[in-house]
Here is the input.
Amino acid sequence: MKSASNQIEGAAKSTGDTIEQKIQELHLNPQEIKDELARTGEVVRRKAHEAGQAISSATADARLTTAIKAKLLTTRDLPGLDISVNTTDGIVTLSGAVNSVQQISKAMALAMDTEGVRQVISTLQVRTQKQPEPSSPAAQKKSS
Here is the structure.
């Protein structure tokens, strides 16, 4: 029983030491918090690595979106203006309307063929071809 108690006590001391170290590293001692609250009304800390990665990720996503949109716009048989591209963490979502299932395949293939893309999700819809109304001149010509 004493051994378990000693282990728990040692882990608690280690955790306490780690927390104290973080408080110092992040400038979270009481006086710094008090000063910052008086100056700005809030206390904010970000991990530099995570903030840098978030900026890097957003930049990479914007680059991917731009590259894919350029491919879609320069491919003759795709309605590039009708396809929206959104990218989050290398996952690309294509949305909008196209004229055929083949265009969905082509748009997805173009997106997948872009370096840095991890996954492509398509919510593209195939436009329905409207049939002329029976009383319209186009329908009457068809039946003649």
